[in-house]
Amino acid sequence: MTIDSAKFNRAAISQKIAEQFGAHCEVNNPYTGWQREETKLIDIANDIWKEQTGSEMIVETTHGGLECGLFKGVMPNVEMLSFGPTIEGAHSPSERVNIESTEKNYKFLVELLKRA
User: At the top level of its lineage, which domain of life is listed (predicted)?
Assistant: First the structure.
């Protein structure tokens, strides 16, 4: 099952549940999914992260929508990597970003652009 087919499957399930309770559910923003790939870029990124922080980079897959899915759709041969600072309370009135992690990510990005 692909990322997009899983998304469409979940949307169909949500629509059926809504209908069972007399509600209407409409999917109006089919955001393209993206699945990370094992690439040379990730290896370079891990080397930089380890040099800068002294620890291994944590590589995870998240549930959130990422711009990488949109970019990958039109640039399928481009290696992609998504990273960012620590964010707490995302998409809520109490959303905030950890400033220290923002600084680490900036230094990481600068070095990644030099080496990639």
Answer: Bacteria
